[in-house]
Amino acid sequence: MNMKRISAERAVQYIKDGMKVGLGTGSTAYWAIQKIGERVKEGLSIQAVATSKASERHAAELGIPLIPFSQIEHLDVTIDGADELDSHLQLIKGGGGALLREKIVAFHSHKLIIIADESKFVDKLGRFPLPVEVIPFAVEWTLHSLQQLGCRPQLRTDGEKLFVTDNGNYIADCQFGSIDSPTDLQKQISGIPGIVDHGLFIGLADVAVIGHSDGSVAIVERK
Predict the structure, then answer these.
(1) What pLDDT, on a 0 to 100 scale, did the predictor assign at position 92?
(2) Which end of the chain has fewer CB within 10 Å, C or N?
(3) What pLDDT score was predicted for residue 223?
(4) pLDDT averaged over consecutive 10-residue blocks of the chain (223 residues)?
């Protein structure tokens, strides 16, 4: 049972003719893009933007019409995955390395729909290391500042090299353990120079579509 695929295909039902759509990044968003491509072939008329070069290539291969960001002011809906989410629809994102672009697209969307399998739904955020996008300049100082917040930051690698985002930055994966106050933590992280953005998505998600191993789907809406 592919829980990611189940949740993604259910979420695509929210997309209607004429919508401007944000395409997420990662293994669950992959299935959403696949389904959107099928619906476009069947006659669905939309315009889309992508949150990463990988998703943009995938969409183009499927014939999904892509438009420049300069030609639109907002999106009707964005469908994206999450590495963790709780009952308040607070998220950790960035496992795929596209958190900055994902956050920009989410911020400019009227509705953000998160798709995930049941393993991603947690009582409290923090089991998954929090990705933080940092600029290369003086990165050791930035990592030290992150460490002062009580985590173990580790620069992400890609083979033997450091992982580099589509924006030319690094990702520090920060193991905080249980995060008691995501709102406070995001303020503390954002106050450190050298940090571009972080994977805490607070107050952005509107709906979560969660696939379960028995084939069912649960819909969670932001309270």
Answers:
(1) 98
(2) C
(3) 80
(4) 93 98 96 98 98 97 97 97 97 97 98 97 97 98 98 97 97 97 98 98 98 96 89
Q: Alpha-carbon distance 127 to 108, whole Å? A: 28
- d(C-alpha 3, C-alpha 200), whole Å: 23
Domains parsed from the chain with CATH numbers: 3-120+202-221 (3.40.50.1360), 130-196 (3.30.70.260)
Q: Which two tokens stand for residue 102?
A: 């994902």
From the centroid of its chain, how far is CA 212?
Answer: 20
Tell me the C-alpha distance between 114 and 209, whole Å: 6
- 3-state DSSP call for residue 79? strand
Positive or negative, the Cα torsion across 147, 151, 152, 155?
A: negative
Q: At what angle do helices 27-41 and 53-61 cross, to 10 degrees?
A: 30
Structure tokens at 171: 């990702």
State the pLDDT at residue 175. Answer: 97
Q: Which of 75, 80, 76, 77 is nearest to 91 (CA)?
A: 80
Distances (CA, A) of 192 to 48, 113, 139, 143, 167: 33, 29, 12, 10, 19
Tell me how far the alpha carbon of residue 186 is from its chain's centroid.
16
Distance in angstroms (rounded) separating the CA atoms of residues 149 and 158? 26
- Other beta carbons within 10 angstroms of residue 64's beta carbon come to 23
Active site residues: 102
Q: Return the pLDDT at 172.
A: 98
